[in-house]
Specification:
Oligomer: homodimer
CATH class of the largest domain in chain A: Alpha Beta
Number of helices of chain A: 12
CATH topology of the largest domain in chain A: Beta-Lactamase
Strand order of the largest sheet of chain A: 7-3-10-9-8
CATH architecture of the largest domain in chain A: 2-Layer Sandwich
Largest interface: A-B, 34 and 34 residues
Largest sheet of chain A: 5 strands, antiparallel
Number of strands of chain A: 10
Helix content of chain A: 40-55%
DNA sequence: GATTAGCACTCGATGAATATGAGTGCTAAC
DNA sequence: GTTAGCACTCATATTCATCGAGTGCTAATC
């Protein structure tokens, strides 16, 4: 167990290192107001903290820097996560509300806002449309050989795709098919739509059966396309200001990783569902993010579970501030009503 | 006027420098098979070329590197632009054709392909929907307070926006409005749509005038949103392999610039309409691209003018290869029929 | 027993001095 | 007009000494 003083010192080392990105030495610490011990005393405690694996030295004659274990301890014991600053949250809410009544714009704004507040990079995953329910499906001929399939959900989400016919479609068949599908499928979650269309087709025997089935296929194929949830990146260039990313060796993997939209989406979707979760350094298991920490949280908007937002910074990130801002943003989103 | 030998030397210097990114000296050149002169002779010609501003030396004891003027001369006189390799073009066409019948996917593929072929970064601007003509407009209520405005064009392009009502909309008014708008506006170019809606509204006197006008406004506001043409980036990480972008000072402006989608779009749209145009170094007038050259070209797809594609590399880019590949890609696109 | 002063020691960072070598410009010979 | 020869330049790499922040240990002090 750590003594009171060791705790103070650990906290001081991490706070200091977070600010300066420089190893911190015993003399520097002894000059702080909240640490009125001699540098020798601090050195002794530092040696203990090092034995416990909480801090480490880059080399003999440098100061100490926190280890990942140290950060973990800091985050788990020394960062208070639950305190919501009502005023600040309200203020954030105002800034979000001002932006839009459309959810996609709102999420983008939230991502930008969070990265502005923290100077880290943020990634926000929008609503997964698979849970949306079908409001209307439509097939609209453009000319003899092409048409547009439109799918609108109860949340106002729209998917569309241009399709090509082998032969002209009879307008009445199109209309009939569309009406039929709408009657049968309204309210179906998008995720089940493809399956459901298949079921409906098999139940049927109609005139124009052939054309009918062909259209069904077209529509089905539209639904089948993997429509990834919308992804927003905020403050990508913040990374350039981080001292640990001033060399290509560190910068390149990060930038390459963050530009890979699909991988990013998969990663965000794979995160455990929690309110606020901090993953430190190599904990996240991603090689490109070895030297990064991530604060993630699911968020709700207007009462409904919506998506995930993540904040990525160097391992030496300001966890206290980051966690607080994250908390305020998701609280502000939670309180935001879509219909203004 | 340049002598035959000076031309040979200029070409050799540029070819060599493009390959190695190192200043090239007289001794290196004299060892080439196609330059059977002594290093002293070459030095004399180099001095002349330098006087003409075609090459320059980074410092006294280094070799020569091409100046922007030199590159300009090289591109204008020593790169043949019109030769299309039928086989290669056909092959590219096949690779594109395999990908999709949907234009947006196709453009994305073309951008990726071009960056794969050249190892430079490419940017492609999709069709500008402002020229598309309205095929259908629709307003679809989701619940009492929200609806989706849908706009579909003759090219299969879809725009949509969620709108909020103050009060519930009567279904028959909605239907009436939509029918009216479709009758009047079908075939209108998207760019003029907003204006035209305004005109139509002012001509009218109907029951439900108020709700009617309100809807019109909603639809108008949807159209008014600046919907940028679709933009695709290919091979962004190629920049990491360029020796001139191995330091943050050079890399950062480039990456920050290329990530700014809106600015990129404006820039591409502002380019002069031409088949293939090469802009060298500071010619492009963009600070972030001081040390870059750009090969741009408008392209057509399936006969219709479509958009712009650009290839961005260091000033020391392989112009010959770049221009050739660009030519092949736009030729392949031109020959691609959308309906497969 | 806990704290602190004192001191030898470590080791990265900084900077001056030096060596290296690729490349040039000029001159004189071919 | 071309080439060999040579003095000169200058960025780069290397070596070496110095500096100083920081440590660990020991002995004195509270």
């Amino acid at each position: 167990m750590l003594t009171e003083r060791q705790l103070l010192i650990l906290r001081a080392i991490i706070d200091d290192y977070i600010q300066t990105a420089q190893p911190v030495g015993s003399r520097t610490l002894s000059k702080r107001d909240d640490l009125s011990f001699s540098s020798a005393t601090i050195r002794n405690d530092m040696a203990d903290l090092e034995d416990l694996g909480l801090i480490e030295k880059p080399h003999t004659s440098a100061g100490r820097i926190p280890s990942e274990v140290g950060y973990r301890y800091y985050v788990d014991h020394l960062v208070e996560t639950k305190i919501i600053d009502e005023r600040a949250t309200y203020h954030l809410g105002e800034r979000l509300r001002a932006s839009a009544q459309e959810s996609e714009v709102l999420i983008r704004q939230a991502a930008d806002l969070l990265s502005d507040l923290t100077n880290y990079t943020t990634v926000a995953l929008g609503p997964n449309s698979q849970m949306n329910r079908l409001a209307r499906i439509d097939l609209m001929p453009l000319d003899e050989r092409r048409g547009v399939v439109l799918i609108v959900t109860d949340q106002g989400h729209v998917e569309h795709r241009t399709v090509v016919f082998d032969s002209p479609m009879a307008p009445d068949v199109v209309e009939q098919t569309v009406r039929f599908l709408n009657n049968r499928l309204k309210g179906t979650p998008l995720g089940q739509l493809k399956l459901r269309i298949g079921e409906e087709v098999s139940k049927l025997h109609l005139a124009h059966q052939e054309q009918f089935e062909f259209m069904m296929q077209l529509i089905q194929s539209t639904v089948g396309v993997h429509h990834p949830a919308s992804l927003y990146l905020g403050g990508k260039k913040n990374i350039f200001n981080q001292p640990e990313f001033q060399t290509l060796d560190t910068l390149r993997p990060f930038l390459e990783w963050i530009d890979e939209q699909e991988r990013l989406t998969d990663w965000l979707e794979s995160l455990p569902n929690r309110e606020i979760y901090v993953s430190i350094g190599s904990e996240n298991g991603i090689v490109a993010l070895q030297n990064c920490s991530v604060i993630t949280s699911d968020y709700t908007l207007d009462g409904q579970t919506f998506g995930t937002i993540a904040m990525i910074g160097p391992t030496r990130m300001d966890y206290r501030h980051g966690v607080q801002m994250m908390g305020q943003i998701i609280e502000a989103l939670r309180r935001t009503k879509l219909e203004e």
